[in-house]
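User: Modeling request: complex.
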Amino acid sequence: MSGSSRPISFIGSSVSKPLFNLSSRLWGSLTSIRLTLLLLLVLVLMAVLGTLVPQGEPLPNYLARFGPRWGLFIWRVGLTRLYESPWLLLPMGVLALNLSACVLRGLPRAIQRVSRPFSWEAARNLPERGRFYLAARQDPEALVSRVLRQELGRPEQITLEGRQVAFLLERGRFRPLGPYLIHLSLLLILIGGLVGKLWGLEGRLWLAEGETARAFLLPDNREQPLDFAVRLDKFQVNYYEQGIPAEFRADLTILRNGTEVSKAVCRVNEPVTVGGLTFYQSSYGTQPDGPVKFRVCQGQDCHAMEVPVRQSVTLPDGQAQIMVVRVDGNLQGLGPAVQVAVKSGPEHPRIFWVSQNHPELADRGGSPFFQPGPHRFQAEAIPFKFYSVFQVRRDPGVWWVYSGFLLFLPGFFLAFLVPAQRWAVVLQPTTEGFWEGRLLGASPRAREAFAAKTARLLTRLNEGDNGLTLRKPA
Amino acid sequence: MISSILGVVTLVYLVAGLFFVGSALWHSDRLDRAARFLLGCGLAAHLGAFLGRWAEAYQLASRHFAPQALSQTLRLVILHVPLSNFFESLVFFSLGLPALGLVFFRRQLQGFLGALAALFASLILAYASLAVDSGIKPLMPALKSNWLLVHVLTAFLGYAAFALAFGAALLYLWQGRATAVPSGPMAAAAGAREMDRLIYRAVVLGFIFLTLGILTGAVWAEQAWGRYWSWDPKETWSLITWFIYAGLLHARLVKGWAGRRIAWLAVLGFLAVLFTYFGVSFLLPGLHSYLT
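Assistant: Request completed. Predicted assembly structure:
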């Protein structure tokens, strides 16, 4: 349409001239939108594949699921670790190159464009949107200036030859930078991911209550020493009344050279950072701490017995065998409980839970605590310790990623929320003693809003000071 | 109380949708005004029900843990925004549709597009009320974060904007097929151009919200699990959705695509949204599964 309404293309269209050398051909395809769209398509397909094929499981699972031939194939070509494989990393890397190339190509031009002030040279080429006429007795400059200020913002006023006066106004001047900010923020995020991969550290730490650790375990099972020691003083699961967990809480003590330095509470969503490493509460469990003491009754005949965990023990009357399968420190918020298997004769073993604090649950049919009989088990003492599993991490890439996130905001604002508009009003006295005004302007990306604004401006300017609309002199 | 309000809202949206259909068929301004009025009333009641449930969840939670200071009260309020399970997400999704429509696309929300928005909202709300457990459950430890509010809010506003773009795309494709439009070919062409612009604008809005949803989710994940990205199925599918809409925007802004091709991309994008929302929750296990 005009000089300023040229579409702002930040990724060039394909080069139409014949290409003479390889590097410019390579540059051409690296900056092409076709490549971008192709890469997006490939990445979509890869990501879909990654959600269809379960990730990171051992080989036998794939053999069972996809058959020996396909299972092995999927395993061999790396589709089972797709997100760390070239299948995804290669298109991602090319996308990063594509992004960088487009930014390199277009950003200097955008900066140049933005840093050039909106001048009369640019304004005179804007398409004309309408004319208005003002009577000579009015102060036309004040009127135009006021209307523009109220509708758009403060205009720049310049005097031209032949008693002409021009008012220039630009909105969304920095819009051309928007797309580049968005693409730069994507690059920052990708760089952050790479930095994290190269210089980050990630592992797990198992700690039972009372234990102290001076190292944690890396994914390849190597030990990574800590330059401090961390002790788990206490682990708690707190429940709501309904038996739904409300809080997983680990109380930690940090020690240096054997002396306590600080204490910290680590919860889900509330990690603890010590010495550059961050500890995230990720899992927990109960670990038995000695044989379980039962009181076993059949009718009025009761005996005390001790049952070591995961060992089959014959009951005092010799009629059945019991094995403690699992120990839970706080089952459904009801306190300590053990899961036992009781086997008498050739029958299948019966499996149920025995609660220490709530023996009455043994009579409740249908509950996991229900004891079918004939023996009645009561847990007198369940020695146990909680253990907690922490995700331990140091990721120097996070700040790159976060700065990318932050850069998105101005990027989106500029690219999508402030349409670029340029306006100019030129006033010229006519020989009949009127003032003739011309309204020029363009807004390539927001024609709708622009047209509405144009109509409004013309109406107001035509009405002049006293609401009297003058007609163009015949 | 709240569930009966939601029931009434479902009906109001349904009637508003029918009025919109009528206004399109008979070119009746009066029906159009009535439909908008009904939609606005329904939205107000819907918002009231949403806030009511928020208050109820807060009451229940403060019974378990009574806040002492203002900061604790504030945190408890933020934590118990009713966006923590499938039912609540459906209620908010169906709230987002007429809300975005009336706020951002006030002028275009009429006729068949208004009908689609109102009927879709009504359908989702009906599904939520009839088929989904609406009980208020205490908050799981994983959801206890200030990021819950802004993450779910932005994500679902994005879904709602994409749903509007989808509706506009359907109408565009349908208008392209219907050759004999009663009001003449010029009006049809103008309507198609309007729909085309609307698809683009709704996609831009949805894209901004979806991006914010993904970013806030990443910050939250970093805080909760120590990883801003772990290729959880929900994350992966939201990225797939993001890629599709990014492709749409590039095709339009750089290659100048418009019309049917953009409309089809908007349809494809919304299918990805639906899979991200429903498919992932029920078919693929992960941190976002609603079945746990």
